[in-house]
Design goal:
With 208 residues, this protein is mainly alpha-helical. The protein contains eight helices and two strands. The longest helix is centred in the C-terminal third of the chain and has 31 residues.
């Protein structure tokens, strides 16, 4: 992977094509586990590890996998890495594993991971594919953390279980409920789209 290419990949994954806030992929885990920063960060790192490893392996074997069974092959590769991550979490961070619940094994069919395997890793060399996995994983993690901070702070008055809002504040419990997930996600997407339009307008004005 060219060193000059990676910064562009990083910007693309975190900002330009953020999986959750721009491409609107992986909505299920984004809303389900973002009730606390611990859970959001844990899911983000787990997905990032799987993205990097699966992209790298898919790229390595891309020329030997028959086209007709490539999707099934990608799922098997992804499932292998998800199983490894799940076993590691169960062994070393069982509390996080329990908190993520069914959404951890469901990483296998996460459209972000499968989509990058098909759209990028199957067409590019291994190191570049690993870089793409890292950038997209960090973008997913950033969006999860942004949602988690908002929901935990407004819903519980805490961040990482540390109380930041005085006990006299009555938490908005709806924020940590499913409806609050939709509301928070919608507000963040609207903010991102506003900033993108503002940036595009600024570039157009400078061009003139």
């Amino acid at each position: 992977m060219s060193k000059s290419r990676f910064p562009g990949q990083l910007k693309n994954g975190i900002i330009t094509e953020n999986p959750s806030l721009v491409l609107l992929l992986g909505m299920c885990p984004t809303m389900a586990v973002s009730t606390s920063l611990k859970n959001g960060l844990g899911m983000g790192f787990a997905a990032t590890a799987v993205l990097i490893c699966s992209n790298f392996v898919v790229s390595l074997v891309r020329k030997v996998i028959p086209s007709k069974i490539r999707i099934a092959s990608f799922v098997v590769i992804i499932a292998g890495f998800v199983s490894m991550v799940q076993m590691l979490l169960e062994a070393f961070i069982p509390v996080l594993s329990e908190a993520l619940g069914v959404f951890l094994p469901l990483i296998v069919v996460n459209c972000i991971i499968l989509g990058r395997a098909e759209a990028f890793a199957s067409k590019n060399p291994p190191l570049s594919s690993a870089g793409d996995g890292l950038s997209m994983g960090l973008g997913f993690t950033c969006s999860l953390c942004a949602m988690s901070i908002v929901r935990e702070l407004l819903g519980n008055g805490t961040i990482w279980d540390f109380r930041l809002i005085p006990p006299v504040y009555e938490p908005a419990m709806i924020i940590i409920m499913p409806a609050g997930g939709f509301l928070t996600l919608g507000c963040l997407i609207a903010l991102v789209q506003h900033l993108r339009r503002k940036s595009a307008a600024g570039k157009e004005a400078r061009g003139k």
